[in-house]
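anyone seen this seq b4? input:
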Amino acid sequence: MENFEVMLRAATAADETFLFDLRRATMDEHLERAGESTDERAHWERLRYRYNDAYIICCGSERLGIFKFFRDPDERTIVQIQISPTHQGRGITTYLVGEFLQQADAAGVPVKLGVLKGNRAINLYQRLGFQVVNTTPTSLQMQRL
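predicted toks r here
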């Protein structure tokens, strides 16, 4: 990762416009390829899903993306991680997911996530030890034990 520190803060209602624009910028290509809806309603539904588990990825006061996850007693789940296109390729996702995996390892629990087929993030998840455990017509369900 470049020489800057990222932090997470809880998402608020004031972040919704930023997150909507981020979602369109980072997900439309993948959703279209998978045959999923890219209409405004679908984006808002996904954005608001588990919004209480959403954290804004920040560097200082600048918003870089979103990391949405939750912790259950027996497992951890990554719901979404999206980085603004202008900040991609800097190792932010690798760093945040790595930290999340270390916490899961300390708790002795697996981590699961879903990713659309064809998304280049699949390669990152595989490098981090995730394996495909199930597939749907449009996505892969992955888990790291």
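The two ends are 25 Å apart (CA to CA). The domain at 7-107 is CATH 3.40.630.30 (Aminopeptidase). kinda curious what u guys think
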